[in-house]
Each structure stands twice: as structure tokens, then as C-alpha cells.
């Protein structure tokens, strides 16, 4: 990459930028132009060269195994390369990262500058994945990127920021920490802002942090381009769009959602208080077969793994709280067959080469029904048969009904006699007790490792923050009779009140 050049300062317009960039400020906008691609497959027939990507980046795409552009990329790349602000509506796994990484790098090559682009993601795991893509593409063109997230020493991050990389991938909370506390660091020359999974970011109450970030960067009149990607267009996302994008084009891709032909899909309607017990029953019924269990949070994935191990099952977990070496180690054990049960979260499973399994169990139903398709696609591959079981409690009925509408069919029930299942209750209750104790020991060990240092308000981002919060208050669901302990399983009302009183 040619030598870097710094743009002139726009400090005189900082006050105007602050007022016009607020998420909470709504301005009049023209009707959005739309580029829609209804019912397309994920991969298009367009090559990156045909879409305007230069030779160096096309070679980088080939090195990453990207042959043809995805549907969202084929629609958005010509627009972003032309300098338009874009709102991309597409599901996870649709190739959104390439949609913003390629135009940023191509324009950076033409106009070299440090601190050129900032990409915001709601969780640490997603930020790491985006950073890996920028590293993979950037190494071919000399672009440097860093990942700034919670849970990592701020001093080492401050040193990396002082070296002024070209691209920063960050979670909002930790980026605000650096903007407020790291001497000499600012984003006043920023040329690109990307907000990935904006709907999720706003649902996690990062609105205040986004306001602060937008107040510290140039506005669109100063030449800053903005790209916003989301699975859905909520009212909060629309408000964010009005505040941060200038005359954007909306690119919406609705891909075909097909489940494998030889997949047997079933549901199991159960009381929330016996949920762990039913899972243990299913594990026992299909003992010896490879199984993938989806949990909603890092904490629950870890807890279920400990629970099943205490019951004698060969289980291993995969979640965003784990380091990259540990995640790869867990995946290696599962691939080798030394462990036949893998328990993971959606975020941790994305982008990893998880082999086809015999059975997929949705212990926690995804709030977005389309994520269900992504999950069950892990079984019944290449003409093989497979089974998917959705565990539905009284708190999941609405989510499950939306799932059936998406699938266009009513799933058959997985038959299980409660009297037979409850034979496991005593053993499961003891395994729960042990798992809870082990979780507390893990949290105590983590706290000691941090030397008792106070953590900032947003030093835990996304799923890691959820995990720590849940582990501190312990699990109140499963077979303990207190009701569900997840976002869609309220029921521990008394426990919740006591927790508030303690705080």
C-alpha cells in the first residue's frame, strides 16, 4: 500500500457534527431507494471482478475460497464502491462482512489513510470474526486492522491504537472507553463507519454508546460514508438510519430457506422446570449418535456441558467466552469422535467447520425463526438422514408458532412419557447441583485472575456480559422447580425480586 496521508482536521465543525449525529435526533429524509432480491439463493452468479473489485482484492478473495459473490454482495458492492450509503437487510451467513470489507479496502488502496474505517459489532465473537476477514483480505494489500473488545487489557489495546491501524473492529462499549480514556486517540478523520447486526446492537441497549461514537466522528457532510447491516428493519434501526446515513439505498435480500429432504423435524412440548430432565432423557435415548445442542447464551452452554458430564455423557462446549485455541480444541475433539455431544451458541458456531451430525437439539429456541434453518442444516447433509428436535416450554409458544409459519408446516411431536422421563429426575437434580457449584468455582477463578480489578460498565460486551451476569445470579431454571431462567422463560418471579433487593 502507498505511504499514508492524513486528511486535514475538521475540528471547526465538531459542534455541528455532534448535534446532527445523535441517534435520538430524527430528520426528514427522502424515500429510500430499494434494491430487492426476493427468493434468491445465497450465492449469486456474479464474480467479484464483474462487480468492480480490483485484481489484488479478487486474488485475496480467491485465497479465502470466495469464488462468486453472495446475493447481498452482488447487490451492494456496486453501490458502496460508488460511494453511496447503504442499508443492507440480510440474514446471518449471507456474506455481509464481504459486502463492507471489500469496498472499504478498495477505497483505502486508492486513498491511503490511518484510522480510515471503524466497524461496530454487538458481541466480541462477531467482532473477532469480522477482524479475521479484514486480516485475511488486508494482508494482500498491506492494510492493518485491530480488534477492540471488552475482556482484553485496555493498555495493550491503547498501544495498538497508538500505532494507528487502518481499520478498527470494535464493540461499542469498549470503543467508547478508549475515546474517553485513551490519550491521543480520536476518530475525527474517519472515512467509513459500519454498524453490523444493528438490530441486535440496539436491542442490547447500546444506544447511548452509539450516540457518543457518532458525536466523535465526522458527519456525512464531511465525506464520511456509512453502511448499516441488519437482519430486520425495526423502529430503532430506522431511527439510527435517519441519524447516521445520508440518502441511503436499501438493499434487501430474502434468500430461499430450505431444510434438507431427509430431515425429520419434531417438537417436544414440556414444562420448563423439567427441561434439563427431558434433555437428559433424549441424550440417553440416542446414546452413541453425534448430537449438536444449541443454547441461547454462553452461560447456559457451559452449564449444560457440566450437567451432562456429571451424568456421564461425553459432552464438550463451544461459546464466545472461550479463547480461540480452546474453541478449536473443543471442535477437534468433536470431529475426532472422542466427544459425541457438542453444545454451542449460535454466534460461536458461525464460520466454523462443524461436521454433519445425526441429531440437532434446540434446547433454547432462537428468537429469530430463520436462525433455526441455519441450525438444523448441520444435520441430514449430502443425502444422509437426520433428526432435529425443538424443545418447547410454556414460555416458547409464541416463538414456536412463528417458526411453524416460517416452515409452512406443523411439526410432528416427539413422543416421551413424562413418567419415564422423571425417572431421571433425582440424578439430574444432583448433576444440576454439581454443575452450579462448578460454575461458581469458574467465576471465582476468573475473578481472582482479574486480581479483583473493577470492571467498567461496558467492559463485558454482548454474550460475555450475559454469561457473567447469569453466572453471578446462578441458574434458576431446569428441573429445580423455579421456572425458566432465559430471556423467553420468565417464571422465577420470586427469585428475580430477591435478586433486585440484594442489589
TrEMBL record:
Residues 262-422 form the Helicase C-terminal domain. One of its GO terms (cellular component) is nucleus. A motif (Q motif) lies at residues 46-74. The keyword DNA repair does not apply. Residues 1-43, 443-503 are annotated as: Disordered. CDD domains: DEADc_DDX47, SF2_C_DEAD. SMART domains: DEXDc, HELICc. Residues 458-471 have a biased composition (Basic and acidic residues). Residues 1-22 have a biased composition (Low complexity). InterPro entries: DDX47/Rrp3_DEADc, DEAD/DEAH_box_helicase_dom, DEAD_box_RNA_helicase, Helicase_ATP-bd, Helicase_C-like, P-loop_NTPase, RNA-helicase_DEAD-box_CS, RNA_helicase_DEAD_Q_motif. Residues 478-494 have a biased composition (Gly residues). SUPFAM superfamilies: P-loop containing nucleoside triphosphate hydrolases. One of its GO terms (molecular function) is ATP binding. It is found in: Nucleus. Keywords: ATP-binding, Helicase, Hydrolase, Nucleotide-binding, Nucleus, RNA-binding. Residues 46-74 form the DEAD-box RNA helicase Q domain. Residues 77-251 form the Helicase ATP-binding domain. Belongs to the DEAD box helicase family. DDX47/RRP3 subfamily. This is Uncharacterized protein. The lineage of its organism: Eukaryota, Sar, Stramenopiles, Ochrophyta, Bolidophyceae.
Amino acid at each position: 500500500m502507498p505511504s499514508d496521508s492524513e486528511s486535514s482536521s475538521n475540528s471547526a465543525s465538531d459542534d455541528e457534527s455532534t448535534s446532527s449525529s445523535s441517534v435520538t435526533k430524527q430528520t426528514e429524509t427522502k424515500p429510500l431507494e430499494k434494491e430487492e432480491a426476493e427468493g434468491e439463493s445465497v450465492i449469486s452468479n456474479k464474480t467479484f471482478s464483474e462487480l468492480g473489485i480490483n485484481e489484488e482484492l479478487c486474488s485475496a478473495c480467491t485465497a479465502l475460497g470466495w469464488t462468486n459473490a453472495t446475493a447481498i454482495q452482488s447487490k451492494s458492492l456496486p453501490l458502496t464502491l460508488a460511494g453511496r450509503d447503504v442499508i443492507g437487510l440480510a440474514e446471518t451467513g449471507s456474506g455481509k462482512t464481504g459486502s463492507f470489507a471489500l469496498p472499504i479496502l478498495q477505497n483505502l488502496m486508492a486513498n491511503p489513510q490511518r484510522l480510515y474505517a471503524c466497524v461496530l459489532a454487538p458481541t466480541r465473537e462477531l467482532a473477532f470474526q469480522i477482524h479475521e476477514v479484514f486480516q485475511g483480505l488486508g494482508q494482500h494489500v498491506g492494510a492493518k486492522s485491530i480488534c477492540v473488545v471488552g475482556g482484553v487489557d485496555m493498555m495493550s489495546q491503547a498501544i495498538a491504537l497508538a500505532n494507528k491501524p487502518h481499520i478498527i473492529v470494535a464493540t461499542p462499549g469498549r470503543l467508547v472507553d478508549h475515546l474517553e480514556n485513551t490519550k491521543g486517540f480520536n476518530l475525527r478523520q474517519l472515512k467509513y463507519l459500519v454498524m453490523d447486526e444493528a438490530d441486535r446492537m440496539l436491542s442490547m441497549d447500546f444506544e447511548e454508546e452509539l450516540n457518543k461514537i457518532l458525536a466523535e466522528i465526522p458527519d456525512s457532510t464531511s465525506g464520511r460514508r456509512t453502511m448499516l447491516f441488519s437482519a430486520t428493519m425495526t423502529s430503532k434501526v430506522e431511527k439510527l438510519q435517519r441519524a447516521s446515513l445520508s440518502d441511503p439505498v436499501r438493499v434487501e435480500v430474502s434468500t430461499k430457506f430450505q431444510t434438507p429432504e431427509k430431515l425429520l423435524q419434531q417438537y417436544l412440548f414440556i414444562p420448563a422446570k423439567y427441561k434439563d430432565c427431558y434433555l437428559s432423557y433424549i441424550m440417553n435415548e440416542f446414546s452413541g449418535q453425534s448430537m449438536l445442542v444449541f443454547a441461547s447464551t454462553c452461560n447456559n452452554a457451559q452449564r449444560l456441558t457440566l450437567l451432562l458430564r456429571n451424568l456421564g455423557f461425553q459432552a464438550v462446549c463451544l461459546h464466545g467466552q472461550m479463547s480461540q485455541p480452546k474453541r478449536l480444541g473443543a471442535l477437534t475433539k468433536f470431529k475426532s469422535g472422542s466427544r459425541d455431544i457438542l453444545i454451542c451458541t449460535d454466534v460461536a458456531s458461525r464460520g466454523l467447520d462443524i461436521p454433519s451430525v445425526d441429531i440437532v437439539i434446540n434446547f433454547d429456541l432462537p428468537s429469530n425463526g430463520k436462525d433455526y434453518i441455519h441450525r438444523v442444516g448441520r444435520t441430514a447433509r449430502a443425502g444422509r438422514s437426520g433428526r432435529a428436535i425443538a424443545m418447547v416450554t410454556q414460555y416458547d409458544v409464541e416463538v414456536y408458532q412463528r417458526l411453524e409459519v416460517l416452515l409452512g408446516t406443523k411439526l410432528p411431536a416427539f413422543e416421551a412419557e413424562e413418567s419415564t422421563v422423571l425417572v431421571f429426575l433425582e440424578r439430574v437434580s444432583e448433576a444440576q447441583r454439581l454443575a452450579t457449584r462448578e460454575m461458581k468455582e469458574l467465576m471465582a477463578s476468573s475473578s481472582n485472575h482479574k486480581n479483583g480489578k473493577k470492571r467498567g460498565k461496558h467492559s463485558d460486551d454482548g454474550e460475555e456480559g450475559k454469561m457473567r451476569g447469569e453466572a453471578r445470579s446462578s441458574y434458576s431454571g431446569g428441573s429445580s422447580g423455579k421456572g425458566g431462567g432465559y430471556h423467553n422463560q420468565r417464571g422465577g418471579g420470586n427469585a428475580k425480586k430477591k435478586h433486585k433487593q440484594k442489589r
